[in-house]
Please model this.
Amino acid sequence: MKIICIGRNYTEHARELNNPVPAEPVFFMKPESAQLRNNQPFFYPPFSNDIHYETELVLHINKVGRNIQEKFAHTYYDGIGVGIDFTARDLQQKAKEKGLPWEMAKAFDFSAPVSDFLPMDSFTDPGNITFGLYKNGGIVQQGNSADMIFSFDAIIAYVSRFVTLKQGDYIFTGTPAGVGPVKVGDRLEAFIGDRKMLLCNIR
Ligand code: MG
Model:
């Protein structure tokens, strides 16, 4: 499996990192080894001094597809969860300045904690899903899928022009504003609506 991540999909987040609001989706990937499941703790990696959380809704892909038309895209995912796109912001900044790829900053081991997935029939409107992140009990990110620049279905149509989607893939759909650093000892809790979906302790 693979993890596809959308960058800059919420206007306020693009602005907070001084990035332009994109005209087409920006995407990158994390490998299978980036997965962190079952509320396992995240161990702060030695190669960075500035790991940031980015809380994102995550689609669970349920069948193979390429060149998917947007009107059929909703049939290619069967659940939505929440995940954290951990980012080594110091390494990413250096890569950006040099025009180099982001893998070191984004694709490292266990950089993608993911919750279980809620089936689609648990959402009355996938275009209006609230989610958020608490750090040490205080809210730090709040988002709603209504504020995405590119919808779930637009993302699937776009990405599948370049990359075949396969059953079991995840798509991280972008983070709202409020990203920030973590340190050892922090406790992250991610919610969809009022439902606590994910716990991630930083060790
Ligand atoms: Mg992200």
Summary: Residues 5, 7, 54, 56, 85, 172, 174-175 surround magnesium ion (CB under 6 Å).
